[in-house]
Amino acid sequence: MRHYGSISAIRGMTVFLRFDTGFFGRGRGMRLQMGAARRMSGQAMTQTTDEGDLAAPGIHHLTLRGDAAVLKTEISAIILEAFGNSEISSIESIKSENYYALVLQAQNKVNALDPVRRLVRAHHADFSRIVGTKDLSAQRISYLRAVRPSREVGDEFVDFHRESLFNPDMVHAFNVWIPLSQAATGNVLRYVPGSHHIPDEEIVCRNEGVGMRGVEKFGAGHKVGLLYDRKTIVSGVDFLAVDAMRVPEGQMVVFDGNLIHGAGRNDTNDIRFSLDFRIIPARRVMNHSVNFAAGDAYFTELYQP
Fold first, then answer.
1. Cβ–Cβ contacts within 10 Å for residue 269, how many?
2. In degrees to the nearest 10, what's the CA dihedral of 138, 243, 68, 12?
3. pLDDT digit string, tens, across residues 100-143
4. Going by C-beta distance under 8 Å and a sequence separation of 6 or more, which residues neighbour residue 51?
5. Helices 67-83 and 115-122, interaxial angle, to 10°?
6. pTM to 2 decimals?
7. Which residues, including other chains, have CB under 8 Å from residue 79's CB and lie 6 or more apart?
8. Cα 174 from chain centroid?
9. How do residues 64-81 score in pLDDT, each as one tens digit?
């Protein structure tokens, strides 16, 4: 028996999609359960010192507020619609490229909500304080991550990396990561504490080659943020120190793009959903590369209050 898509909503409720037979719309059908979510209170946490499981150097926790909280509800509704489609016979048996196409359709709907600009507007003061300037640029579109259970590295998630391995501008960037499903401790973003201080030249990578794991350049998998030309860190980083990036319900994290991080295998029975994009001081954008998924420059300058 499998159940999929434990999707966090806002306003005190969590939505769970449970499929009694592992098939959408077959057998005994779909059971929609509603349960009260654990309420999280308190102010946004932006300190960069250790605070139990919540904060560590280079990581900033922010409580979603205002339009950012509304946005998360809207995104959860899109996920429910996309992954609760009764015409999908079995989510596990869908071939990778077809599954990437399904995720891409949902990602396009999410980006039609203009999530990057809305999140920056709602948290401009927080982002400006973290990045160090009010003049922000950001990734033009967000990536929707939807990792099925028991997938391998590169299939549906990106393993340990830092952003500057793929774009030199990213040495100045910060990642914004929003979990959209509450996950078990071992089923979250992982990171190496303090690794944002390791110089690039001390990190040795092995190139795994174009087309590994079936992600095609310019294909649907590439458009949802997966790597068609994957790199594996082989030395220079202490992976024995790996920790889990635990994010309470109703929060997001902003962390240094140089922090070594990776999504990790999904060992639960639920699809793991999250949303991410990058922000950067506008003056630090030197490489005006094109994000082909957006059809325009990778970074765009953003709203200033």
1. 14
2. 170
3. 999 999 999 999 999 999 999 999 999 999 999 999 999 999 99
4. 45
5. 150
6. 0.78
7. 5, 7, 106, 146, 180, 273
8. 13
9. 999 999 999 999 999 999
